[in-house]
Write a structure and sequence with these properties.
about 0% strand
Length: about 90
């Protein structure tokens, strides 16, 4: 299974994994109406998490900032790196 990384999906992915692996008080991901579907995809694709987190580091900050989670691109990249270190 492959997850197409578009800006918003990548941001949700990082936000949710940050919540799971780094800071259980982080809740930006929880505001998304389709969160259950996204979480299901994340849970069944765990073997890809490291590669996806690494890929996010090379994504465009401006595009990553286009999300409804209130996270800017630089923060998403920093969170992705933190999650990578926690895995």
């Amino acid at each position: 299974m492959s997850l197409t990384f578009r800006d918003r999906r990548a941001t949700f992915f990082v936000s949710y994994l940050y919540y799971r692996h780094v800071d259980s008080t982080h809740s930006n991901w929880a505001s998304i109406k389709t969160k259950n579907s996204h979480i299901n995809t994340i849970n069944i694709s765990e073997q890809h998490h490291r590669a996806w987190l690494e890929r996010i580091g090379g994504m465009n900050d401006a595009n990553l900032s286009k999300n409804t989670l209130g996270l800017d691109g630089a923060a998403v990249k920093k969170m992705a790196l933190t999650v990578l270190k926690a895995l």
